[in-house]
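assembly run, all chains below
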Amino acid sequence: MSLNKRFERFLEAYDDFREGLDRGLPYDLDLLRELFGDWRGKLFPTEERECPFHRVLVLLPSNVPMVLFQMAPLLLSYPNVTFTFKLSSGERELIPRFLGLWRDSRMEVLLSDREKTRDLAGGYDFLVGFGSSELEPFLRESGKPYRFFGPRFSLALLPEPDEDQLLGLFKDVLAFDTQGCLCPRFLFTGDPPKLPLSRLWEEACRRRPPQKGYDPLLFRYSRAVLLLEGKGDWSCHDGGLFQMERIPSLFPPRTLFLVSETDPERVLTFLGESASSVQGIVTPQGESHPLLGKETSASLFSPPGGAQHPPSGWLFEKGVTLENFFTPQQNR
Amino acid sequence: MLFDRVLEQIVQGNRFDPELALEVAEYQLRRVPLYKEFAQRVGVSLPLRDPGQIPFFPVEFFKRERIFAGEPEGFFLSSGTGGDRSRSYYNHQSLELYKASALRSFPFPDSPLFSLIPPVSLAPSSSLAWMIGAFESRWGVTYLNDLFEIDPGLVLERIRRELPPGGTLFATSLQLLRLAEGGGEPLDLPMRIIETGGYKATGKIYRREELYGAASRLFPKACLSSEYGMAELFSQFYSVGEGGLYLSHPYNPLFGEEGEGLLQVFDFANLYTLSALLVPDRVVRKGSLFDVRGRVTREARGCGYVFK
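ok done. output:
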């Protein structure tokens, strides 16, 4: 089957899937529709490529349903590869539904726990892992070539944000209840108390309510801790907004930390070794920032409201492209 | 003196004393700066007018701050590993309150007592070992093990040899699991086992039914109970209520609404640390009874970075 034909079938499945999204899923449906709608316009067929590996196991992260779709150009570009997706429980309602519509025999689903996956890894000749740092030893010990996308977080640097920028940023923060690596966890800004935080945060939380699985008790306990750790609190009943002077001890879902700092050097000092785990940076116009771009691992700059909308060819990490995706990482 | 009235509440109190609770909370607010700061952050100032105003302090801070009203004489360490262990400071008066509370809440004093928890002389930073020591001084306890670690074969042999019918055995959850996994022959002895929690080292969260199921295969005639305690609390709860629910007392009542919530306990025995504690355990409360449904602290999931 030609690349164009495969792409056509993918888009048909994608459209059917998007239209069939229903309330049974554990995610914010409006957000999913928005993301799928946006991505529909960005997807394009790429050229066909040869891959030295034929059976690829992809260990998808939990609670981050967009990863497979972000990989779509890759899946379409390599016709000689069979991809097997190991799913976590959150994705078991979503991904199989999509793959069922796609009906591409190269795409398989694996439902098993981590221990069984360890045994199964032998049946594949390339491994791709997303998620917690516990995963990398497993990939390394498998003895197979692999690519690991480790845990990441995002941040925003908005020295003097206006209301639209704040609302856009809050929308980015609350996507998937702040569980994805593209959700900003820190806003570095001038003087937090001068911003209209309470009203805008409450409005953002109302527009993007908690997903299924949100735990109000976890939020309540964390808020009690962060109240004392922080220097300011503009939280509402289901979203945390705290001013901090140092990295907090807890990172509950639906929470953004404000830091009164706009000097990039001092932002880096604040982040310390976490700078090497930055995924995306929100800036006023989505413009890249030379120092932060160089000194952090950020692979994406976006404007407020755009953090969840990476471009189609973006493959999670600096320097990773469709061409070099299957170049194995050096074992570290 | 406040100490004497608190001791009397623990030893004899038959109902929660709200006036005494207010006095205790104010005493602590005046002497523990971090508690005072917390109260200010939640909008509470002195004087307190009713118990509903008492701020419940998250136990998290016991891991990194010295929380004590005065000069401590020592501290207990919570179970766990590395730097994530809580320190519960004490002086000789807090140990007296601890002992009084432990003796009063223990529901099976007439049974011969045996322990897999090591003697306090061998585990001086363990509040659990100290509690068993309090039982030893009052009722006598036979120790069947010198460490928290156990050799399942040896320990099971000692239990077979020494535990009489009707005896009560204290064991941590981890010790029970190790025994159950040891593959020994089931012990057909009518006995009581009190599991005292503590399985953090396994890196896995066990439900109570899971633990009881494993223990029952090895001890089919044992009656299983649980003790809920922690280094930060000088009082304990035992699962002796209807349906295996934990029972609170007039000296360690639970606050908050009925139904599901966080554990909010007012422990009079914590006079010299903090009595009103907020614990990240999900509980379902009905009157003085409650069930514990596990920690609310979320496990690391997704691709989000975990800050250290």
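The first helix of chain B runs from residue 2 to 12.

Chain B has one domain: 2-295.

not gonna interpret more than that til we talk
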